[in-house]
Write a structure and sequence with these properties.
Layout (H helix, E strand, L loop, with lengths): L1 E3 L2 E3 L2 E5 L12 H17 L8 H5 L3 H10 L5 E4 L15 H10 L4 E3 L1 E2 L5 H15 L3 E4 L16 H13 L3 E5 L16 H8 L4 E5 L6 H8 L5 E4 L6 H4 L1 H14 L5 E2 L9 H10 L14 H15 L22
Parallel strand pairs: 3-4, 4-5, 6-7, 7-8, 8-9, 9-10, 10-11
Antiparallel strand pairs: 1-2
Helix pairs in contact: 5-6, 8-10
GO molecular function: hydrolase activity
Pfam families: Amidohydro_2
Protein name: Amidohydrolase-related domain-containing protein
Length: 337
């Protein structure tokens, strides 16, 4: 919970990681390039007092997560997303076993999502069924630019991907988080193109597609898709830290999203440990548009409360309960199970 000027904000961090980018886990030069690129993004957009040294950044601890996200980071709950990247890391980038232990030790404060790769065929379908049962999955994180042998990615509109989306429907996995945005060395920018979301969001209208990083740098493409697909959400990871180094640009991105979507489909995310939620939340609550940014919808206190937690809480009713004191008195209440 975050409190400022008498206002209380229920906070859900919609996208955190528990990765292992250590030298020992890197399978090849591409694994090293991937985690070095992560660190480059983090270093460029983080206030100096919050920047870790590289070794800690490669592999941090369960205690780090609990301290940074919950003890000082104001989060009441967090969504832990997964990505394996088997071609780059010996034991997977997302350290799945440790992530599950962290989830179980967090006292109900973490919801862990699974993942799938459309190129894994029948074996992948079986694994998704097993993961859904073991982790009681409500969501998955998809990385369309991941390499697999000679393949350098897939599209969410591929027939193979549709098999997995149909299986998600069958298993009751409603939330499909898809990385669509900034590329990372050595992955290809076009493999993160957001256009395939237009197809799958139309064909699977009972699923929610949370587009992480809201398609940056293809913000305009994303907005034109999301404005016509009511089941598409804007995940604000990577967008948020620009509030520090490029606040005018941040205002433009938030303003465009509010204009084209609506205030109910923007989701706060720190992308921890890329960035820490504490300073992002403090700066966001204090943020106002610049004087020349007059054509965007208002960024009111109630809108900020929705973005910081109430919106994503609606998507995860099995594990997130919003206390009555945080409900918006004059708006539609957040429904609870």
């Amino acid at each position: 919970m975050y409190e400022k000027d008498g206002e209380k904000y229920f906070v859900v961090d919609g996208h955190i990681h528990f990765w292992d980018g250590s030298d020992e886990n890197c399978k090849n030069k591409y694994g090293h390039q991937f985690i070095e690129c992560f660190y480059g993004y983090s270093s460029a957009l983080t206030p100096p007092e919050y920047l870790w040294d590289y070794k800690k950044y490669q592999k941090y601890t369960e205690a780090d997560v609990m301290h940074d996200v919950f003890e000082i980071g104001y989060a009441d709950h967090a969504i832990l997303n997964s990505v394996h990247l088997w071609d780059f890391f010996h034991h997977g980038f997302d350290r799945e076993a440790d992530a599950w232990a962290l989830t179980q030790n967090a006292g109900g404060k973490i919801t862990m999502n699974g993942t799938w790769d459309a190129r894994d065929g029948d074996e992948g379908i079986k694994q998704l069924e097993a993961d859904a049962k073991r982790f009681d999955l409500q969501g998955v994180k998809i990385y369309t630019a991941a390499w697999k042998g000679d393949s350098r990615g897939f599209k969410m509109s591929d027939p193979e991907a549709y098999r997995y989306l149909e299986k998600c429907q069958e298993l009751g996995i409603k939330n499909i988080h898809v990385h669509k945005g900034p590329t990372l060395t050595p992955l290809d920018k076009d493999a993160f193109d957001v256009s395939d979301i237009d197809h799958c969001a139309t064909d699977f209208q009972d699923l929610n597609f949370i587009v992480e990083h809201c398609g940056l740098p293809r913000l305009e493409d994303f907005c034109w898709i999301a404005t016509q697909e009511a089941n598409v959400y804007a995940g604000l990871s990577v967008v948020m830290p620009f509030i520090h180094t490029r606040p005018h640009y941040f205002g433009d991105v938030i303003g465009e999203l509010l204009y084209w979507l609506d205030e109910d489909r923007l989701i706060f995310s720190s992308d921890y440990a890329l960035w820490q939620p504490k300073w992002l939340i403090e700066k966001f609550v204090d943020f106002n548009y610049f004087p020349d940014q007059t054509e965007y919808p208002e960024l009111t206190t109630d809108v900020k409360k929705k973005i910081l937690g109430l919106n994503v809480a609606k998507l995860y009713p099995k594990t997130i309960t919003v206390p009555e004191q945080f409900q918006l008195s004059a708006a539609e209440p957040v429904l609870q199970p």
